Amino acid sequence: MTSSLFVYGSLMYPEVIRIVLHRTIDDLEIRDAVLEGYRRVAVPARSYPTGIAALGSKIHGKLVSGLTEEDLRRLDAYEASFYVRTTVSVQTDRGMAKAFAYIDGRDPLPFPIREWDAETYEKEHLATFINTLKKQCLGARRQ
Question: Residue 29: which CATH number?
Answer without folding.
Answer: 3.10.490.10
